[in-house]
Amino acid sequence: MRFDAAVLRSYEGRFAVEEVVLHAGPLDGEVLVRIAGSGMCRTDLAVRRSAGRSPLPAVLGHEGAGVVVETGGQHTGLRTGDHVVLSFDSCGDCPNCLAGAPAYCDSFAALNLFGGRREKAARFTDAAGRPLAPRWFGQSSFAEYALVSARNAVRVDPALPVELLGPLGCGFLTGAGTVLNTFGARPGDTVLVLGAGAVGLAAVMAATAAGATAVAVERHPERLLLAERFGAIPLPAGSADLPGRVRRLTDGGARYALDTTASAPLINDALRALRPTGHLALVARLHAPLPIEPGGLDRGRRISHVCEGDAVPGLLVPRLVGLWRAGRFPFDELIRTYPLGDIDAAERDVEAGRVVKPVLVP
């Protein structure tokens, strides 16, 4: 089977939309999906900054959504014609997967970042027959088609605009899941969100939907306006005495804080802005040591790293869809669509802050 995909051949180079070849269809437990849209996440672009760790050439993309066109075997739980949102891959057999924590799968890095499922022969190549890296996050959805494990495909109502739903599988899942799952935010709680990108704004929406008070910290005025529109109290990053301002706004400190920035100064500000027993969750990868200032973890305050919003995608994606249908999680207002051929323009717009969530449409 031949189709178009955006191939990244070097860590410094541009994406190139070219013909690729799938040499075998889905095996037992797999499905072939015609991609209707795939969100661009900063994790896709982080491949450039972690040069050498993720193999190239590769087709990236891990926020895909589309229609099942072929199933492998009788045990996928899906049928041809089903509309699905694609999320991260997991083994299903390790202790964390069996305990309902697939984001902490023992094989998460291998399956999603560094090589995928081992296969006897390359099933995915370029037009000349040269192998492409195995499925990125179990998907490689910057393409017209994606071969995925049925484990990371979530069926959705075919009446929904499936081309817009892909970001529910990662970016929006991470922000909303951290608020709804990790924190379990409720009315009366306060949630401080550092960074109002796709993940942070999803967290703001989820906090508001849960009846909590959100405070958003962001350096771009346009993003602050968005956060305010979605119910947050806006605070410009770099404000004098940020912890003090948060404590005054939240009657003694935030119960929860979510950091999307990986900025050590902001992380320390967030700790000082927490009330006693408060919880700070980090969702961005740290690229430098994180010195915690004295007193930051006093009085029961704690800090943890959260992966994929502590989500079971098959449970959280339908919940977010339900909130969207009720007008309480308007994620579609963050999306701008681009033809797949304009993938480089989408990347430039993300890096420049001109768009929150690009979605590539094959």
UniProtKB/TrEMBL annotation:
Similarity remark: Belongs to the zinc-containing alcohol dehydrogenase family.
Keyword annotations of the record: Metal-binding, Oxidoreductase, Zinc
Keyword tRNA-binding applies: no
Family annotation (SMART domains): PKS_ER
Cofactor section: Zn(2+)
Protein name as annotated: NAD(P)-dependent alcohol dehydrogenase
Record-annotated Enoyl reductase (ER) domain positions: 13-360
Lineage, highest ranks first: Bacteria, Bacillati, Actinomycetota, Actinomycetes, Kitasatosporales
SUPFAM superfamilies named among the record's database cross-references: GroES-like, NAD(P)-binding Rossmann-fold domains
